[in-house]
Amino acid sequence: MKPTWPLLLVTAALLGQQPPVTNAKLETAQVQGGLEKAVRASMGKQAGAAWIGWAVKRIPSDGRSCCWDDRGGYGCGLEGQKVTVAPMSGAVKLEGPTQEHVLLRVEGGAIGRIRSYSDDCPLDAGGLPFHWLTGVSAAESVAFLAEQVSRAGAAREELRKADGAIHAIAQHAGDEALRTLERVAAQGATEKIKHQALFWLGNSRGEEGYRVVARVLREDPSEKVRERAVYALTQSRAQGAAGAIVRAAKEDKSARVRGQALFWLARKAAAPAKGVISEAIEKDPDTEVKKKAVFALTQLPKEEGTPLLIQLARSHANLAVRKQAMFWLGQSKDPRAVRFFEETLAR
């Protein structure tokens, strides 16, 4: 019996022979003289659209970069077509994917899109030429992608391409990727590009990424960038991430950032959140922060948040806080809130 299509694809990927791609006019070339030169050479081989790709070592991860359907099937149609491979049965790999495949969609001598997928993600190239480059080092891959980010303008398509490049960089193993993300987070041409770098630093770069994002949160002069850094920390599994959000909730000079920190703290870490939120309601000098802190209580588990809202609505000295607590109690549909309003109206 012949092996099934998914098995053939995964086997080829694991052996590093070629990407798990079908419906493609596949051509393989060894990189000589640098990645930029190899990409340009591949571009020059046809006038129409094509895909160019290469593999790099991936950050350790128990997940895969791929496309999924609602039944657990996976696979990506590079030209927008639906591709579904049923999950494989049998032995489960203890380790996640070890390589990331970086793909460029090119047409007319220009790069239009940048994508990256783990080496076990089946791909369908939609019948286009597919140029696979071998011998690409992580350093030159990161440098090439960073150059694409630096060239991006403010147009939506340019930002989308930069997003793809930043995601691809974030999946690269090694210090070059971390340092590049750090540089983009500090010096990116637009705030949206900085935001993407911060997100992936928090999401994928572990303790080192957390330290970079925490420093941006402390030092960046832009309120919007610091606000995004707070969100990036919610994506981090590093031990100190919640503590950095707490510091922002208490100490950031911007009321907007303090309010956002309270909201995300409630979503990320309920244990320390109650005390920090309550402290903000009592002590923060800005009424808008107090109101956001009341809203943050709605993000806590109901058994914790609802009693605090009732207490505020019943007796807090600040009228704005009481009104805000009543508003969110009214939205909650919690039976305890209904009883509170019944008791209040009966007086």
Keywords:
three-stranded parallel beta sheet; elongated; five-stranded mixed beta sheet; 347 residues; 15 helices; single chain; alpha/beta
Chart the SSEs and their pairings.
Blueprint: H1 5-15, E1 21-22, E2 25-30, H2 35-43, E3 50-57, E4 76-77, E5 99-107, E6 110-118, E7 123-124, E8 129-134, H3 138-151, H4 156-171, H5 175-187, H6 191-204, H7 206-219, H8 223-234, H9 241-251, H10 255-268, H11 270-283, H12 287-297, H13 302-315, H14 319-332, H15 335-346
Helix pairs in contact: 3-4, 3-5, 4-5, 4-6, 5-6, 5-7, 6-7, 6-8, 7-8, 8-10, 9-10, 9-11, 10-11, 10-12, 11-12, 12-14, 13-14
> What is the structural class?
alpha/beta
Distance between the termini: 80 Å
Q: What is the mean pLDDT?
A: 89
Q: What is the strand arrangement across the widest sheet?
A: 2-8-3-5-6
Unreliable runs: 1-16
Question: Could you describe the 3D structure shown?
Answer:
- With 347 residues, the protein is of the alpha/beta class.
- Among the domains are: 1-62 and 73-84 and 97-136, no CATH class; 139-224.
- Helix content is 56%, strand content 13%.
- It contains 15 helices and eight strands.
- A five-stranded mixed sheet has the order 2-8-3-5-6. A three-stranded parallel sheet has the order 1-7-4, with no helix packed on it.
- The longest helix has 16 residues, at 156-171.
- It is elongated.
Please outline what is shown here.
It contains 15 helices and eight strands.
